[in-house]
């Protein structure tokens, strides 16, 4: 038996239950992992609230790091005793131990701790595909990244700086502005005291930006479109303020033949070779010191509801983890 978080109805953090679960042995293509640290991400709230439908009852969590205890038939790339990390489905990361598909597990370098890995896998892999695959950010380019002081944002600030790009980050307070600047943002816009579109125009001398990365959703979507130069790319990868409302495709035409995409990590890591390449790039960035992972909130696994409440309040910075 192991302790885990489960929920049998959708709703607020109060629906999360701390219960005993039977872990069992891994089947073909599976591995059992004893987790040392677990990542908390905004997408977890989407599953808990029902924005992203799941079959109930359900586990929660898409990210963690630990040690392999056993592997099933056909699993050859990992073995018992290996240090591993992962980001991706199925749900169930909020647990002391779990049986899971082995193909999403990657070897964790000895110089990266379990806590750091749990705090960075989903966010770090997300930044890797956003800045190098969804749109290949080039040296000298100026880009716009919303929620720059969040877990994904702080990694993006550093990664963009490593690429030689100028990242404009939006934040909601003076303290978060300072944090984003300290992590490599070239410019910061406080959306509570400044008009985002106007500031982007000023920073870019009226040229606007070739790409906007928007994980906020409803509150920022149309402003994001207005920050794009003709034929620019809108990357909508989250809904922290709510889902983007339906809109006419002519909105893209009237703003200069804009492009739009709604990417997901799962689509980018579905092939094993791509997952390994992305994880390798992330590990290299972190090992080199070009990207430092900020773990600013830690909660016991039993307090997963408190962790999600803190995340929803937008009072957190950097990464949040659970400790079994």
From TrEMBL:
SUPFAM superfamilies: GroES-like (SSF50129), NAD(P)-binding Rossmann-fold domains (SSF51735). One of its GO terms (cellular component) is cytosol. It holds the Pfam family ADH_zinc_N. One of its GO terms (molecular function) is quinone reductase (NADPH) activity. Keywords: NADP, Oxidoreductase. This is Quinone oxidoreductase. Residues 11-322 form the Enoyl reductase (ER) domain. CDD domains: QOR2. It comes from Massilia horti. The keyword Oxidoreductase applies. The keyword Oxidoreductase applies. SMART domains: PKS_ER (SM00829). It comes from the Bacteria.
């Amino acid at each position: 038996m192991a302790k885990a978080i489960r929920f049998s109805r959708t709703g607020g953090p109060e629906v999360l239950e701390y219960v005993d679960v039977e872990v069992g042995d891994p089947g073909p293509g599976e591995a059992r992992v004893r987790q040392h640290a677990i990542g908390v991400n905004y997408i977890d709230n989407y599953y808990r609230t029902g924005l992203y439908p799941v079959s109930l009852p359900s586990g929660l969590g898409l990210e963690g790091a630990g040690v392999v205890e056993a592997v099933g038939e056909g699993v050859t790339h990992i073995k018992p005793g290996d240090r591993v990390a992962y980001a991706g489905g199925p749900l169930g990361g909020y647990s002391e131990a779990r049986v899971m598909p082995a193909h999403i597990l990657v070897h964790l370098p000895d110089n990266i701790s379990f806590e750091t890995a749990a705090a960075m896998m989903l966010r770090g892999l997300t930044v890797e595909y956003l800045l190098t695959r969804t749109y290949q950010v080039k040296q000298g380019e100026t880009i716009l990244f919303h929620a720059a002081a969040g877990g994904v944002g702080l990694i993006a600030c550093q990664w963009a700086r490593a690429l030689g790009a100028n990242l404009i980050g939006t934040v909601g307070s003076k303290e978060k502005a300072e944090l984003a600047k300290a992590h490599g943002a070239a410019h910061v816009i406080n959306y509570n005291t400044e008009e985002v579109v106007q500031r982007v125009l000023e920073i870019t001398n009226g040229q606007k930006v070739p790409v906007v990365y928007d994980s906020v959703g409803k509150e920022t979507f149309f402003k994001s479109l207005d920050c794009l130069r003709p034929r620019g790319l809108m990357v909508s990868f989250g809904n922290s303020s709510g889902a983007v409302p339906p809109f006419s495709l002519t909105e893209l035409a009237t703003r200069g033949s804009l492009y739009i995409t709604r990417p997901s990590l799962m689509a980018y890591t579905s092939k094993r070779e791509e997952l390994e390449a992305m994880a390798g790039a992330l590990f290299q960035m972190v090992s080199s010191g070009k990207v430092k992972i900020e773990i600013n909130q830690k909660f016991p696994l039993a307090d997963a509801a408190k962790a999600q409440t803190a995340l929803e309040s937008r009072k957190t910075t950097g990464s949040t983890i659970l400790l079994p």
